[in-house]
Amino acid sequence: MNTLKESAAGLFDLIFPSLLGGTSASKPQPKSSEPNAARHVAVLAVAISGSLGDTAMQTAVGQTLKAAGIGKMTLLVHDEKERAQFERIGYRVINVGGLFKPVIPMSVIRSLRQVFEECTDLIVIGADVLDGKYSPSKSLRRFQLAGAARRHGLRAGVVNFSFSDKAVPALCDKLRKLDFLDDITLVSREPVSAGRISKVLGREVPASADLAFLLSPTPATEEPVAGIAAKVEAWRAEGRKIIAFNINATRLRKTPDADLARSLGTALDRLCTEIPAAVVFVPHDYRKGSNDEALAKMIAAEMTSQAYYMPDRHYISSDAKAICKMADLTVTGRMHCGIASLGSGTPALFWDYQGKVEGLLNLAGTPGQTFTEDDMIDPDRMVARIAEALEHAPANRAAIAERLPGIKAMSRSNLNFILAPDSAGTPVAAEAAI
Length: 434
Prior knowledge:
Elements: H1 3-20, E1 40-44, H2 52-67, E2 72-77, H3 83-89, E3 92-95, H4 106-118, E4 121-127, H5 136-151, E5 155-161, H6 169-177, E6 185-188, H7 191-201, H8 225-237, E7 241-245, H9 257-274, E8 277-281, H10 292-301, E9 308-309, H11 317-326, E10 329-332, H12 335-344, E11 348-351, H13 358-364, E12 370-371, H14 373-376, H15 379-412, H16 416-419
Parallel strand pairs: 1-2, 1-4, 2-3, 4-5, 5-6, 7-8, 7-10, 8-9, 10-11, 11-12
């Protein structure tokens, strides 16, 4: 963390709410009592472009609001790279890049005030950036934005977030002092985080399931999905099991890329021969410094089997979900690739490198479907782990199918404060959680 930048940002945070304006003399009536067709919902994007997990959440929100008849939607983004894909969903896209600079440009402040004048509701998607681990200032500003929206008369919510047991203490102190938290909706995306932030704030924060469960996949007739579907059909005609394969290029491991690629390439080669299987690579993060695509190509270069597919273009989040839906099993190093799989009904085997996925697997009714870095660097162990997961895939698929309607209802509860305000904050199907 850059201490100087955080210090400058902290000073600006003191005046940020006043720059956004609005009245705090009384609680304005939320504008969102209007019929859905007259509503205009603004959504704050999670971060810069490149993560299919982030775009999955943002796309799912847009798809869900549109299906509910919301009249207008605005997505507040941090760069221009994914503008076209969000405009296709029906979002008006406004670039607020600079919102998380130590000193926010006045052009961004003016844009935000204009959004508050035009919109009836604000959704802040919290994801994993609310506990100060990446930046206390950036976490605080998300809450401040929701508070300012509420002062302008919007219904506002900070939803779909995780909260670490290592949340920054100084941020927690600031959150406890915010005078508007009782006037905005807070919804965590899983029970453990809900318990943590409830303890910090001294009020109950309900749990939900991740918004990405609501994402609709790319139709099977559209590219690149149609071309991949044809390959999958041909492989199935050969009697092959289909593995959707993602590996996280994170630096949070001890094994060098070249060694990992060699081991995983050997393991996938054996699976293609012994099961027999075919592999569809599913890169799920294209950001600089954590590029799944580059690592996937290194793994493929170690394979001698030709029973694999490496994408010739960048997927969007709905493509990834459609591909996982075709598979017998998804092997993944990223949580949101796993959510794409589980949300499509396909069992997933996770690299649980941060201890975050067991709750998700319990929710889906498929506990224990994980592997370790030690498994990945030992081809014998990795082959055995994936073969075992394929053997249990039919039973796990049935368990997922039974629970998925409840999980999607929990996911939708992130948006209850807009779509069903009388039930906002009420846990949905909580008994299906951990």
